[in-house]
UniProtKB/TrEMBL annotation:
This is dTDP-glucose 4,6-dehydratase. Its cofactor is NAD(+). Keywords: Lyase, NAD. One of its GO terms (biological process) is nucleotide-sugar metabolic process. Gene3D superfamilies: NAD(P)-binding Rossmann-like Domain, UDP-galactose 4-epimerase, domain 1. Belongs to the NAD(P)-dependent epimerase/dehydratase family. dTDP-glucose dehydratase subfamily. Residues 11-330 form the NAD(P)-binding domain. Pfam families: GDP_Man_Dehyd (PF16363).
Length: 358
């Protein structure tokens, strides 16, 4: 049954972060009658500015709070009569999980458990409505690392997480799955490949490279640069999640990917060439002269690749953006919105940068 026509009250956790804020915009544009509630703790990665243009929308509410705060979650579910949870809130950066895994277990495992448990009680009190959904947004990193010739990750690939980040996401995926099998709670899990696009926090690979090129700073590439990621434009991820909420089957997992496997070094080179073309007055040109290989990240997964056949054949979703065009749009956004990222290069950011790259 398609749920798209029914009016929803949608709770979006982590809606001030990168993908969450893109999804909030996407949902508000496409479902103007729906009630949209964003719950976000505003950690270093959350930025209320990402949602500034929505603050005056009638059916929009921003709540600053922690997904581990059960009384708060229970209150929101009841007061807002939530029909749908889209759960993005997480600690999301592998490098930070290596430096300090505690927050990852707390938010990703305990936080997801708190949301599931609160939603279960609320859903029971409501008489188990069939049209409810709990969308748990997860990552392809739970599947571990592929060799060059291995087939891409499918929904039945065994979990083999290698970092505290992916292990904590794997734990939260298992909880979401168990809540469907044990309590019939209508959970759906999505496992997506690497995203890029607007509102991406500056310490992640693509914004970091763009900003360092603008500042004339070295472009740190881990190890030999041969690690492969399957890149997806964030707008495509949002349309996939919309499709899953509207047409996905409760209890199922859907893999989401862009069919865009690129080696890190090739991606960085592509970014350099696009920056040479699009940015004026670069301190170093050609920008690829800034590329510097640095000591590899511990347990660095070699290759990720997504087999997105299931979401294509069962739900009819395919990505629209090519890497070339998506990167061009992303770079133009970072060039035009320097006021967005400049304040984020704070003392905390500099300290983090120093710890990771020396
Ligand atoms: N970025 C990617 O490439 C990618 C790919 C696949 C899946 N994912 C998943 O998508 C989700 C969003 O990723 P992102 O890149 O937008 O992350 P992000 O780090 O940019 O944003 C996370 C958001 O969650 C909020 N948050 C953190 N802890 C919280 C807590 N305890 N309570 C409430 N809010 C909290 C932060 O303030 C922030 O706004 C994550 O679950 C991540 O695992 C990300």
């Amino acid at each position: 049954m398609s749920l798209s026509k029914e009016k929803k009250s949608i709770l979006i956790t982590g809606g001030a972060g990168f993908i969450g804020s893109n999804f909030v915009h996407h949902w508000c544009q496409n479902y103007s009658d729906d009630q949209v509630i964003v719950l976000d703790a505003l950690t270093y990665a959350g930025n209320r500015q990402n949602l500034a243009d929505l603050e005056n929308r009638k059916q929009f509410k921003f709540i600053q709070g922690d997904i581990c705060d059960r009384p708060l979650i229970e209150k929101i579910l009841k007061e807002e009569q939530v029909t749908t949870v889209a759960h993005f809130a997480a600690e999301s950066h592998v490098d930070r999980s290596i430096l300090g895994p505690d927050a990852f277990v707390q938010t990703n495992v305990i936080g997801t458990f708190t949301l599931l448990e609160s939603f279960r009680h609320y859903w029971n009190e409501q008489g188990n409505p069939e049209n409810s959904r709990f969308l748990h947004v997860s990552t392809d990193e739970v599947y571990g690392s592929l060799e060059a010739d291995d087939p891409a990750f499918s929904e039945v690939t065994p979990y083999a997480p290698n970092s505290p980040y992916s292990a904590s996401k794997a734990g939260s995926d298992h909880l979401a799955r168990a809540y469907f099998h044990t309590y019939n709670l209508p959970t759906i899990i999505t496992n997506c490949s690497n995203n890029y696009g607007p509102y991406h926090f500056p310490e992640k690979l693509i914004p970091l490279m763009c900003i360092n090129i603008l500042l004339g700073k070295p472009l740190p590439v881990y190890g030999d640069g041969q690690n492969i990621r399957d890149w997806l434009y964030v707008g495509d991820h949002c349309s996939a999640l919309e499709t899953v909420i509207n047409k996905g089957k409760a209890g199922e997992t859907y893999n989401i990917g862009g069919n865009n496997e690129v080696k890190n070094i090739d991606l960085v080179t592509m970014l350099c060439e696009l920056m040479d073309e699009l940015a004026s007055d670069l301190p170093v040109k050609p920008a690829k002269e800034l590329i510097t290989f640095v000591k590899d990240r511990p347990s660095h997964d070699r290759r990720y690749a997504i087999d997105a056949t299931k979401i294509k054949t069962e739900l009819g979703w395919t990505p629209k953006e090519t890497v070339e065009n998506g990167l061009r749009k992303t770079i133009e956004w970072y060039l035009n919105d320097q006021k967005w990222w400049q304040p984020l290069l704070s003392k905390d950011y500099q300290e983090y940068y120093q710890k990771v790259y020396g």
